[in-house]
């Protein structure tokens, strides 16, 4: 598996599993049923952020987007979001993308990384981020309407890079 900066021609391949992930309704509070063009600005970051893809040969198996969490006086803290093609989950793609984002944020001079909305019932993601050093610094109760679990909390998770 390789990770590289995404190109415009990667978007349709990313969109296939972006759309599938949003339709599952378990991990993102993004709009469902978006068209290819409606979804593009939700995932394809502009500078100073970036979007990357994890590729296995010619196949895009995952993607991450990253950049400053807030503009102006909050731009020293990064944020990121991750997607793994459902056919390639539980094979280390998310971990590799997470490690890439941490390295990128350090190299770019960010002081920390904040994830704003990790669904508390997404146990694999919570475990992954904690194994990479992130801590849960707060939980917004009932902020996510999960299709099976009902109203569950959204964790704010943080990794100090200083």
From TrEMBL:
The molecular function terms in GO held by this entry are: acyltransferase activity, transferring groups other than amino-acyl groups
Where the record annotates domain N-acetyltransferase, the positions are: 1-162
InterPro entries attached to this UniProt entry: Acyl_CoA_acyltransferase, GNAT_dom, Mito_N-acetyltransferase
Keywords on this record? Transferase
Which Gene3D superfamilies did the record assign?
3.40.630.30
Q: Give the matching PANTHER family.
A: ACETYLTRANSFERASE, GNAT FAMILY, N-ACETYLTRANSFERASE ACA1
Tell me what this protein is called.
GCN5 family acetyltransferase
């Amino acid at each position: 598996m390789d990770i590289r900066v995404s190109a415009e021609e990667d978007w349709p391949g990313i969109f296939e599993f972006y759309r599938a992930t949003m339709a599952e309704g378990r991990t993102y509070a993004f709009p469902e049923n978006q068209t290819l063009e409606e979804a593009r600005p939700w995932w394809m970051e502009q500078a100073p952020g970036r979007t990357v893809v994890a590729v296995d040969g010619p196949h895009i198996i995952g993607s991450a987007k990253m950049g400053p969490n807030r503009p102006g006086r909050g731009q020293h803290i990064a944020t990121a979001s991750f997607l793994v093609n459902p056919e390639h989950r539980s094979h280390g793609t998310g971990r590799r993308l997470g490690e890439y984002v941490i390295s990128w944020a350090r190299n770019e001079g960010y002081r920390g990384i904040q994830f704003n909305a990790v669904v508390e019932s997404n146990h694999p993601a919570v475990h992954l981020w904690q194994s990479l050093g992130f801590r849960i610094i707060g939980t917004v109760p009932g902020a996510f309407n999960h299709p099976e679990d009902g109203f569950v909390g959204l964790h704010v998770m943080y990794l100090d890079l200083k």
